[in-house]
Sequence to fold (74 residues):
Amino acid sequence: MSALPRNVPSSSELSGVRWLRSSYSTGANNCVEAARPRSGPRAGLLAVRDSKDPQGPALLFSPDSWTGFLTAFH
Fold:
């Protein structure tokens, strides 16, 4: 079995997800949005996309990878 790709070329491939922005974001659309697919082969991963390009690509992270990313800059 091969590993799933760690990105999707279009965020629209992640149908049914709820994209969230940080409460610290401004209205200038210069931030990232995150979502957690709840079903399908990407369930349990964290998807991250650029808020300026909502139909553009999204990166996919495992929970451990995302936690490692966040704590590396703390």
